Amino acid sequence: QVQLQESGTGLVKTSGTLSLICAVSGVSVNNNNWWSWVRQPPGKGLEWIGEIYRGGKTNYNPSLKTRVTISMDMSKNQFSLRLTSVTAADTAVYFCASLAPSPQYFFDSWGQGTLVTVSS
Amino acid sequence: SFELTQPPSVSVSPGQTARITCSGDELGEKYVAWYQQKPGQSPVVVIHQDNKRPSGIPERFSGSNSGTTATLTISGTQAMDDGDYYCQAWESSTVVFGGGTKLTVL
Fold it and tell me: N or C: which end of chain A has fewer CB within 10 A?
């Protein structure tokens, strides 16, 4: 059974950098899935941030593309999110998730989510 | 950019049929997934590839997708089906979510 667990700093200063790690167990990140980040501001809907595939290919939400980097560490079976120049609008619960590959393209496993608050 | 539109809220009486729609350009040509999310929890997929139900999801959940509209149907709605529902599709190497629909069973 696939399990994902987010970890990282829960409080980030305005204009700083948000960094999160998603530890994956039960499957190798070197499989056919896309490994993704999704966020949810308090009381609002889901927003896709981006994804990474084995070999390092990435896709990002166009609205966040200039500030986002997603990377993968196969030796540790984990992937990471880095979001720069954060503002209060980046305050959200951040989920890591596994996206089933083409043609399915749906999220089949999710982490429990971690709240990141941006404050000065 | 590709967008998915859902009604903000849907209300249904217990035992009745709830229908939640999701609209987008040529949506019928893409696969749609639906997620249920309860407060404080991660989303759970209830339908994928338009109409496939994962193991463990009750048979009362079904889906369809044609033209510009996908529909999640919950037959014989139960109080436990209360929550937020999101549709999701994939378009040009990006994942898109609908804005979400709050289903109230009352």
Answer: N
Number of DSSP helices (H) and strands (E) in chain A, helices first: 0, 11
Q: Do B95 and A100 touch (CB under 8 A)?
A: no
Where would I find the beta strands (DSSP E) of A68-110?
Answer: 68-73, 78-83, 92-99, 107-110
Spatial separation of the C-alpha atoms in residues A111 and A113, rounded to whole Å: 5
CB atoms within 10 A of CB A10: 10
* Predicted pLDDT at A102: 84
Contacts B97 to A, Cβ<8 Å: 38, 45-48
Q: Could you tell me which of B56, B55, B43, B53 has the C-alpha nearest to residue B73?
A: B53
Instruction: Please check whether residue A99 touches B, CB under 8 A.
Output: yes
Structure token digits, residue B87: 């549709």
Cβ-nearest to A48 among B35, B95, B100: B95
B44-93 tens-digit pLDDT: 999 999 999 999 999 999 999 999 999 999 999 999 999 999 999 998 89
pLDDT at A55: 85
Strands A11-13 and B94-97: unpaired
Count CA atoms within 13 Å of residue B71 on its CB side.
10
Distance CA(B94)–CA(B89), nearest Å, equals 9
**CA angle A69–A72–A74, rounded 5-degree value:** 175
